[in-house]
Amino acid sequence: MINKLVDLWEEQKKERKMLLCISIIIPIVVGTICFVLLFYSPPVIVVEPQKLDVSISPGNSTVKTISIGVIGIGDRGLTLSAVGPIVSWVKFSKNNENFKNNITVEIDKTQYINVNLSLQSNITPGDYRGAIEISHKRGKTEIPVLVKIEG
């Protein structure tokens, strides 16, 4: 009888060691996967509106507001730039203060950015296509811009 108890104890001892190993390994693996997903997945840049259409006369200016959010963890620094023929017409401002191109979007906050378009008086009427590029060191998005210059 004692031999049977000893054998049973030894069998259970092996099972307990295996359960202990599993209870240590699983949290490490799950934690590692979560770490990789959170810190190595590129953030998602969310912008509204999805495009800008502007009608304007030469010599005038207008302001359009865009909202920017970043979903994800890590660096939230963004760079804004205009691309295409609209480059020289566009300036960015936030809270009535112009800024070059770099902003930081806070966690769970939406940044509202003014896109200021100012045209010279000698611009030829027509349709001009460009974009507002919003980039992060690990991704980017664009807002297509159509500027209709009235004659």
Please outline what is shown here.
This protein has one helix at residues 2-40, and strands at 44-48, 52-56, 61-71, 77-83, 90-94, 97-99, 102-104, 111-118, 126-136, 139-149. The protein is of the alpha+beta class and 151 residues long.
Overview of this structure, please?
14% of the residues are buried. This protein starts with a helix and ends with a strand. It has one helix at 2-40; strands spanning 44-48, 52-56, 61-71, 77-83, 90-94, 97-99, 102-104, 111-118, 126-136, 139-149. It folds into 2 domains: 1-40; 44-149, Immunoglobulin-like, CATH 2.60.40. A 5-stranded antiparallel beta sheet has the order 1-3-8-5-6, with no helix packed on it. A 5-stranded mixed beta sheet has the order 2-10-9-4-7, with no helix packed on it. It is built from 1 helix and 10 strands. Strand 9 and strand 10 form a beta hairpin.
